[in-house]
Task: structure prediction
Amino acid sequence: MWIIFVFLLAGIIVGFIFRSQTKLMTFSAKATTFAVFLLIFFLGYSVGQNDAIVSALGELGWQAILLSSGSILGSLIFAGALYFFAFRGLHEK
Amino acid sequence: MRGRYIFSRFGGCMKNSLFILLIFSTGIAAGIFRVLPVAIDPNTLILYALYALLFLVGADIGGNPNAWKTLKKASFAVILVPISIVVGSLVGAGLFSLLLPRISVKDAVAIGAGFGYYSLSSIIITQIKGSTLGVIALLANLSREIITLIFAPLFVRLFGKLAPIASGGATAMDTTLPMVARFSGKEYAIIAFFSGIVLTVLVPILVPFILSL
Result:
């Protein structure tokens, strides 16, 4: 999956070069929205084609919610500790 | 997300996540009835959309002058914010996967490394591990955004002002940023932006790395 970095890095470089071209950046934001819609639609399409996944969709949903609860709770605990030791009282005056 | 900037102009953050769910469901329905000609392979299209998205996300970050300024000014405590979120997300997802006999710890940790960035993480996981895990990654990371939008005020009360930044993960730089500004305060919006950018860049690096271990 090294190609992932190639595209990401190419984007960052091109974006940096054209950073003052407001019209181009607006276009890129719109194109991103479009790319996400296409991506999600086709992801759904490939899921819909797969009968085994469709019949297990409810179960997969619960597994997903459990995993996201885990990562949310974990990050809340670590960031909460960081807040308690380094941030509390810093901005409150 | 990404292009969530555009999204947010339509107002109502919740609507956006629900709209994504609607598009996903429409895609599933279209797939069940196989509306596309057989010659069109959705997986090839997904791959092209992924490359386009990666490039555009990069351009979004590279072309954002605020991003560079925020990154340069970050203090040590602020740098610890995304680090604590990374550690918490990976450990949390890994621990909770012990409740799920059919999902390995490694796969769960990779899903946790999506940090709420559902489009990118689910596509990468689909490419490497197949559709089943990709669907779980999409739903898990999408629900991370939705849960943050709903419970941000509660999280602030229980875990302090960094809480919505933590639960929002990569989305803290755009879709869940309004929740941070409102419930933690404006001074935390900059921290949210910083943390969101760092996590966004980490998603396409960490997810394939964890799966390759």
Q: What stands out?
A: The two ends of chain A are 49 Å apart (CA to CA).
